[in-house]
Design a protein that fits this description.
Elements: E1 4-9, H1 13-24, E2 28-34, H2 43-50, E3 54-58, H3 64-71, E4 76-79, H4 86-96, E5 99-102, H5 107-116, E6 123-126, H6 135-145, E7 149-161, H7 176-184, E8 187-191, E9 194-198, E10 205-209, E11 212-218, H8 226-230, E12 236-243, H9 247-257, H10 264-274, E13 281-293, E14 296-307, E15 309-311, E16 314-316, H11 318-335, E17 342-344, H12 352-357
Parallel strand pairs: 1-2, 1-4, 2-3, 4-5, 5-6, 6-17, 7-12
Antiparallel strand pairs: 7-13, 8-9, 8-12, 10-11, 11-12, 13-14, 15-16
Helix pairs in contact: 1-2, 1-11, 3-4, 4-5, 7-10
Length: 390
């Protein structure tokens, strides 16, 4: 079968990981673009690791004409750029009729992408394909469908260092700009059956998983479109980020007491300077639903802890693995005809069984105690089931 051509905007750690995973299947022809030439210096190594050629191009992501030209002729456009560029890339992809995928957690950006779907253009628009929103939304949608009457759906996700050593009990595992945005923007929720807005960093709770104590609190964007989808159908719906105890209070001191929420660029610079990154990270998902089924009040819980793994001879951190695998799974599902190929596709409408059986999505399946992928989990399967036009 012919390969599907995809262009990935953003050659950061996640963009490079997406390129590695997709190219490594042999089913996709991958082009990686970035505004900085030095970001593309890894292409030779990525190509060697994946066993397939990965092309590169320098493109000014702030230039609508240049972005549109870079999208032209590709089956799919994957946006791994900062959320501030979501609307520009989505518009370009939609204009040329390419399928569009992104990782944004930003609520306002997603509403812009959703609005594009009202125009009668070819191509699917699938925003929020990462970890949260993204995979957690797929899980949440599945839990919601298990009940005749859903009472509560609570989603908890954390990307954490395994060995915290500083006062924040944290290490940088992804973009500090995206992290800060989650901490300062209002959070969507459903309270007493009605969609509403609740403040970030509020409603702190404590719990334990496998004997380790954690806290969780409101952060923005993690619900994706679930609040709209389930409004009026659930009494309580919320998303909270998991952290080690003490993190919320330290962040609130910085953002609120020292008013650094008014200077997020400065805080991002401070975080980059002072907070180390780590390859020894983990991702925790704890999703819990309560509702009525067959006349009985029941509870359903989905939980897993994911660690880093070596793929194509390269070690990927837990956040790289989960984020890139989630969007690659959605790309795969669209390519095989499992998802609608036009209009807006919401994460919660993606069947969990299809997601987990996918060669990428199976990283979210429950793991053994060591954190290793369960036997049979692999990134190489038989070729995709359906051809698609270039």
């Amino acid at each position: 079968m012919s390969k599907l051509s995809v262009v990935i905007f953003g050659a950061g750690r996640i963009g490079q990981t997406i390129a590695l995973l997709l190219a490594g299947t042999g089913d996709y022809r991958v082009r990686l673009v970035d505004s900085k030439a030095e970001s593309l210096e890894t292409l030779a190594g990525l190509s060697a690791a994946s066993g397939q050629p990965i092309d590169g191009e320098v493109v000014d992501a702030h230039d609508p004409a240049a972005v549109r030209a870079a999208c032209q002729g590709h089956w799919g456009v994957i946006n791994a750029l900062p959320y501030s560029l979501t609307a520009l890339v989505a518009q370009a992809a939609h204009t040329v009729g390419a399928h569009y995928f992104d990782l944004t957690e930003d609520v306002a950006s997603t509403k812009i992408v959703s609005a594009l779907a009202t125009k009668n253009q070819p191509g699917a628009l699938i925003p929020q394909c990462g970890l949260a929103p993204g995979a957690v939304s797929v899980i949440g949608g599945d839990l919601a469908r298990r009940f005749d009457h859903l009472k509560s759906l609570h989603l908890r996700v954390g990307a954490l260092p395994r060995y915290p050593t500083n006062g924040l009990n944290y290490a940088l595992t992804w973009s500090p700009e995206g992290l800060i945005n989650e901490y300062i923007q209002p959070c969507e929720a459903v309270v007493n059956g009605h969609k509403t807005s609740v403040p970030a960093l509020a409603e702190r709770e404590e719990f334990s998983v496998d004997g380790i104590h954690y806290e969780a609190f409101n952060t923005s964007g993690g619900l994706g479109t679930l609040a709209d989808t389930l409004s009026g159908r659930v009494q309580s719906l919320n998303y909270r980020s998991i952290r080690y105890p003490g993190h919320r209070d330290a962040v609130r001191l910085l953002l609120q007491d020292l008013r650094l929420s008014e200077r997020p660029d400065l805080l991002a610079e401070i975080f980059r300077h002072a907070i180390p990154s780590t390859q020894q990270d983990m991702v925790i998902l704890f999703c819990n639903a309560i509702g009525e089924r067959d006349g009985q009040l029941q509870q359903q819980t989905y939980t897993t802890t994911i660690h880093g793994a070596e793929i194509h001879g390269r070690f990927l951190t837990a956040i790289q693995l989960t984020t890139a695998s989630a969007i690659c799974a959605v790309v795969d599902l669209l390519a095989t005809g499992a998802l609608p190929d036009q209009g807006l596709v919401r994460q919660e409408d993606i069947p969990l069984d299809l997601f987990l059986s996918n060669r990428f999505g199976k990283v979210y399946a429950p793991q053994d105690a060591s954190g290793a992928l369960k036997a049979g989990a692999s990134y190489r399967q038989a070729p995709m089931l359906a051809d698609a036009a270039q």
